[in-house]
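Hi there. Long-time user, first ticket. I'm pasting a complex I've been working with (about 445 residues overall). I'd like to know whether the download I got is complete or cut off, because the file seemed smaller than I expected. Thanks.
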Amino acid sequence: MISLTSPVETWAHRLPAGIKLAALSGLTVTLFLTDRPGALGAALLAVFGLYLSGGPVFLRQGLRHLRMLWPFLLLIALWHGATGQWQAGLVIALRLLTALALANVVTMTSRLTDMIAVLTCLLAPLRGMGLQTRAVELAIAMVLRFTPMLTENGRRLAMSWRARSPRRPSWRIVMPMVALALDDADHVAEALRARGGILNDRDAGKD
Amino acid sequence: MSVDLRDVGVSLDGQRVLHAISASLTEPRIGIVGRNGSGKSTLARVIAGLIEPDQGQARIGGQDMARDRRAALAAVGIIFQNPDHQIIFPTVIEEIAFGLTQQGLGRDEAQNAARAILARFGKAHWEAAATYALSQGQKQLLCLMTVLAMRPRTIVMDEPFSGLDIPTRMQIARHLSCIDAQLVLITHDPEQVRGFDRILWLDGGRLVADGPPDAVLPAFRQRMEDWGNGDDLAHLAG
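Hi, the file is complete. Here it is re-exported in full:
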């Protein structure tokens, strides 16, 4: 499953997504106002406190999401170690970790629908200019819906390959995967059309 | 409410798929039977307004479903054979609410109506579930709830039971039996439409029989068994 929203209900789940996103932007900018490792370390501790307030399961899940950051942190450490700028490296690493940990809290505590609602709000000026924004919202939802399905298509093709070949699946399953994806796209287009397609203008005011 | 087909003809990729189909469907339960490739699915899409016939007319309640998509949203819903081809959204509630916002409901109204239909089916706890993680039968039920939430007067179902096990099929069929809307069910299996009001039999894109199940289904079954004993898989189309 691709959803990153935590099933553990925390107090932060009940805050409106718009406020969380605004706070995230504000706090991230604030992180760039200081170069003191002490201040940034304190900020990181505060964010860690946010995770703690969500309980142990929430904390563990959050740390798992952040684990993918370690190659970047390692690269920063190596680079700044090599050039002898320890303090600068520490500042960058702390800032990166704090900002992403904070963003991750917002992701984990906001439902996709609410995020899309915020986006719809922000795109309102474009709608005022007569541009269609419904497609953007739809596109985000559809990426989330179909990414697992595309992965599954690939797995199925690989399995079908292995059933008839002693060797590992090669680049030759790429074309059939593309063909399947195009075929799926046709079906989804039909499903969208069955439910009215992208009907924008008349309903835009109600969103 | 009636589905009116007048001399409907459709060509896809240069192949004639439907020939001069005419019928006025007013009965609450209509079955369309035929073999694979007989044009059933194409006819289902014509009725739902997803394919515009290149000859003749297809209308529901006097309106052209292919031209007037807004009218079509209120008049007709379609359920495809493969629910994976139908589900557009990552969560159950979004999937159901989408059609309702398309019909002009506000975001909150749509969410409430979606919750109401989930509750009606005793599936309130599905709300936040990932559509991808549902079983095949659950996906098919979700498609049904999605379409029912939009309250169409006619629901077209294209082989809704294929690939479902017997208990799942029975449960879905039970849900179908309590639907108020007119039901047009496409199938190759005469058993599934035995209790219906009227059966259309399509073969090679033509309407070969049209009448009550007692008059049409025995002949259909006999013909299928006769063909089953032969070897017409040998013929290539085109």
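A couple of notes from our side: Chain B has one domain: 3-233. Residues 41 and 174 of chain B are 23 Å apart (CA to CA).
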